[in-house]
């Protein structure tokens, strides 16, 4: 029997310091005003007027100083800041390359998107850049560092996870041990719950979009088709993602919410445990799409009752009954021995440590290195998202 993984691969805040600075500047100006008043006799009305004007001047000076500090602390990101090496794979609407910073020699992953005049593409790039600005709140999401553009291309600079993808791991291992499944799925739960708390649905959760660090921790990546502003019982439309992992409500072109990500999580969990989808039909009587819509999931007899129970609750056809949106998944018996604070803080040692075997050589003939590197004057699709990480 050909494994699912192989088949699918073929198919596929102002701060306190600022407030103190404002108070200090105001105090200095008040001292200056008092000294002038000691030497110059001015009518009280003029004093009040000048005090008001000085206050406005102080605020303006403070604002200018703050902007100057910010400008000094934010490095300029452009194509020439990076040394490109080779392709890592294809993300939604673009290719991902390994690169390193010219100065610090830090490795990064850069998604390169060839720009088109289409408005929807601009919206997509802006959306992904916005999401990459907030992923730093969870260690289980791929973090964004910068976004910039040339005349022909848009670039999203992200952290590099050197351990490959969950898809790669499953192609080697075929299926994982129970303790490995518990560890990886617990980290994915933390990442998904953080995304959903921000009103973000991933919409294309699959092993190829789940990365591993060299230390062995999980990173949910590729937010190109993610949706924003979907909280609680709000629903949206639009069919997108990878059909193998699509929830039945999306396949049926119905409106949906974050429950679709929990369905995808259930499929991934099954693949981690068995190497296959619970809707794969060996007899080929039904395709996977039809099975997802009409059939019950099928699990091997040797699968533990606890894991089967979790999968049954994740793969409910009715989204409002699906675990993740209905009930607390962290309280499921499969995770009875899990200390969730330790998971959140990455205190639990990963079961598998991976190696980054990429060489140091540089590939040539990357087309975006030959294009005009001057920032567009008439295209501001990345205007608000040039800097995602001020500490960089």
Describe this protein with a few key phrases.
Transferase(Phosphotransferase), domain 1, phosphoprotein, ATP-binding, Ser/Thr_kinase_AS, five-stranded antiparallel sheet, protein serine/threonine kinase activity, Phosphorylase Kinase, domain 1, 2 domains, two-stranded antiparallel sheet
Structure description:
- This protein has about 400 residues and is α+β, with helices and mostly antiparallel strands.
- It folds into 2 domains: about 80-160 and about 360-385, Phosphorylase Kinase, domain 1 (2-Layer Sandwich); about 165-345, Transferase(Phosphotransferase) domain 1 (Transferase(Phosphotransferase), domain 1), CATH 1.10.510.10.
- Helix content is about 40%, strand content about 10%.
- The chain has helices at about 5-10, 15-40, 45-75, 120-135, 165-175, 180-195, 250, 260-275, 290-295, 305-315, 340-345; strands at about 80-90, 95-100, 105-115, 145-150, 155-160, 210, 220.
- A 5-stranded antiparallel beta sheet has the order 1-2-3-5-4, covered by helices on one side. A two-stranded antiparallel sheet has the order 6-7.
- Strand 4 (about 145-150) and strand 5 form a beta hairpin.
- Helix 6 packs antiparallel against helix 8 (about 260-275).
- It starts with a helix and ends in a 48-residue tail after the last helix.
- Keywords: ATP-binding, Kinase, Nucleotide-binding, Phosphoprotein, Serine/threonine-protein kinase, Transferase.
- One of its GO terms (cellular component) is nucleus.
- Pfam families: Pkinase (PF00069).
- InterPro entries: AGC-kinase_C, Kinase-like_dom_sf, Prot_kinase_dom, Protein_kinase_ATP_BS, Ser/Thr_kinase_AS.
- This is Protein kinase C delta type-like.
